[in-house]
Amino acid sequence: MWEYTEQVKEHYKNPKNVGSIEDADAIGEVGSINCGDALKLYLKIDNNGVITDAKFQTFGCGSAVASASILTEMLIGKTVEEAEKITNQDIADLLGGLPEQKMHCSVMGREALEDAIANFKGEPTEKKVKGKIICGCFGVTDDKIREVVRKNTLNTVAEITNYTKAGGGCGKCKDDIQKILDEEMAKRNNGRKEKPLTKTQQILKVNKVLENYVAPELRKDGGDIELVDIEDNKIYVNLQGTCKNCPSSNLTLKNFVENILKEHMGENIEVIEA
């Protein structure tokens, strides 16, 4: 289960500034119902460029509602110039943090704000796709993936999926996403390879992946998993509960556990039952 902060729960249960502004000075829209998330942001701006009112309408999960709600609270009283500086991380931070798998909700809020400001400034409102579509399931382009990687210092395909949904559908685009990620990480490090993680860092990262992505699924059927050790690229684990003596335990390790860990840790790993 995902852990939600009290701020997220409050803004989901009692969202602020829901609705529309009939004479809005700026309107921003992002997403689509077909993709599962959509947000429309309305702004009222006075002659001094101060946002005096902000409202939203959204179709999405609790994190999407909470992100839009807190964003409107952040905007009221700020100038347009100040609003332009708000990042998706600012939205998540003010909510006390979001589960990794829900960070795309804060990104959606930031994109709706960008669209609203462009609308206010009289910039072209027609929705032009910037870049090449990489994820056909969710309409995510290479430009968007690169932007999110840069702004949030992302390091894995799974993180990109959390922030953009790219790769979260059929999964056919994951190789293309990895290529983009490799290019951006090379630029980030001026062409130098990243310093490898220490064993302690590896253990912490593997445990986090197991707890957030693997264990919840195994526990649904009475199973569980425990990290035993890491040696180079080999990760030793113990299946527990109903998974321990299951005839399909090897398939679970290779087709599920290993694939999930490869998404988060890189392709050059092997999962072995201790």
For this entry, give a set of tags.
274 residues, alpha+beta, Arc Repressor Mutant, subunit A, GMP Synthetase, Chain A, domain 3, three-stranded antiparallel beta sheet, three-stranded mixed beta sheet, 10 helices
Describe this structure in words.
The chain folds into three domains: 6-120, Sufe protein. Chain: A (Alpha-Beta Complex); 133-188, BFD-like [2Fe-2S]-binding domain (Arc Repressor Mutant, subunit A, Orthogonal Bundle); 199-273, 2-Layer Sandwich (GMP Synthetase, Chain A, domain 3), CATH 3.30.300.130. The model has no long low-confidence stretch (mean pLDDT 89). The protein contains ten helices and eight strands. With 274 residues, the protein is α+β, with helices and mostly antiparallel strands.
Topology summary:
Elements (H helix, E strand, L loop, with lengths): L5 H8 L12 E7 L4 E9 L5 E9 L2 H14 L4 H5 L3 H7 L8 H18 L12 E3 L4 E2 H11 L4 H8 L9 H15 L10 H21 L3 E9 L2 E8 L7 H17 L4 E4 L1
Parallel strand pairs: 7-8
Antiparallel strand pairs: 1-2, 2-3, 4-5, 6-7
Count of DSSP H/I helices = 10
Oligomer: single chain
Count of discrete structural domains: 3
Major sheet: size, sense and barrel closure? 3 strands, antiparallel
Strand order across the largest sheet: 1-2-3
End-to-end Cα distance, whole Å, is 26 Å
Q: Which range does the strand content fall in?
A: 15-25%
What would CATH call the class of the largest domain? Answer: Alpha Beta
Cα radius of gyration in angstroms: 21 Å
The unreliable regions are none
* CATH topology title of the largest domain: Sufe protein. Chain: A
| Beta-strand segment tally | 8
Which sequence of SSEs, written as H and E, runs from N to C?
HEEEHHHHEEHHHHEEHE
The global form is elongated
* Average predicted confidence as pLDDT: 89
Q: Could you say which structural class the secondary elements and strand pairing correspond to?
A: alpha+beta
**What would CATH call the architecture of the largest domain?**
Alpha-Beta Complex
Assign a percent range to the helix content: 40-55%
